[in-house]
Amino acid sequence: MLKVRIIPCLDVKDGRVVKGVKFADLRDAGDPVEQARLYDTEGADELCFLDITASSDNRDTLFDVVARTAEQCFMPLTVGGGVRTTDDIRKLLLAGADKVSINTAAVNNPEFVKQAAEKFGSQCIVVALDAKQIKPGTFEIFTHGGRNATGHDAVAWAMRMAKYGAGEILLTSMDRDGTKAGYDIPLTRAVANAVPVPVIASGGVGNLDHMVAGVREGHATAVLAASIFHFGQYTIRQAKVHLSQAGLPVRPTKERGN
Amino acid sequence: MSVAIIDYGSGNLRSAAKAFERAARDVGYTGAIAVTSDADAVAKADHIVLPGVGAFLDCRRGLNAVPGMVDALNEAVMIKARPFLGICVGMQLMATRGLEHHETLGLNWIAGDVVTLVAPPDAASLGPGGTGFRIPHMGWNELRIAGPHPVLRGIAPGAHAYFVHSYQIQCADQSHVLADVDYGGPITALIGRDNMVGTQFHPEKSQATGLRLITNFLAWAP
User: Which end of chain B is more exposed for a tag (fewer CB within 10 A), N or C?
Assistant: First the structure.
């Protein structure tokens, strides 16, 4: 049986892991390479690495940090942040990424998602959506860390991106990001029920019950979290034990027979 | 001793190479591990690895575009019987035909077709955590092992491997299926015969299980 994936996410700014609240008030959470090594040892199912450096003048730093992070990972590594061209994707794959996450560039030029999926395969293309509730039950996509409204409805946008070849949707609730109040379940469920591809729930995890709810009520196929892992509130192992006790299928942190 | 990981413009080659380097260190393998697009280097290598991600047709075209590569592969694997590992689309290319978008000929080493994964009709209520059988089949799944094989040494039934794909090979001869997984029905996970094996999953991304398979492959002398 396929297992629910638990994905720690490294938000990286200028080569350091940071964590904020609602995309602001960033605080330092360590060295990405060290963190990657730790998560690989702990048996995380995947690692997500998002470069949130505001400008693109730091690209070379990014490729270097991705390469050094990838050296520590024998699990899938998704890298996002500022991915705008097929050349960016190629460079990230060469640095050791397995998948890339496209966010703003998809909004600016939806055809880019199509081109990327045709060139590199859907399995390699994750489309990230940052969504905010604008009225009860209605969610809109925002870009640039939540500053720019796009006018796109989150559910319709996710469906369009899946149709264009996105192999996976990384769905972040901007209202919940860093609040520890739990995933936005209505948002997650609305998107997950509308698309045929896997959906990663993101934004707002404060405890392990939130992860269970993300899958069971939100219908997510994977759950992403940052601060609860970075600051040592829970280990990957504790998260897996908790999900397993709740009846969800997870991969044990240590395999038999190895 | 040497390993050639074939570079034909497809895939996460760095990931594959670094997993081989790590596995080689773990078992004291002293041979060279080279990522190469040189057909002569492939012809001379002791172990050959064909990775691949993306579409079957693109990968086949990419392979054809490297001068002498298809001939070098056929000679090394089919005539000289060198150990061969295909990964993901590299595994699918071992088949007779790929039916992704267009009919495309494979290397025809393992009789079978590469076909689209189809989610079961009642998918919405089933699947992991009741979230449905989504395509791509993406994540960790448990291997159901058909029988002992040198590359599976030390890997227990139920060990997890990492998959990400929307197509799978259907072998004409079921004895070529060395392992499968369940995802609303069987999905081919590992194929092989004689001196060749292919994994639908990514050993380079499957942590301890994957590294074990790679070390087994390095030690394999069929």
Answer: N
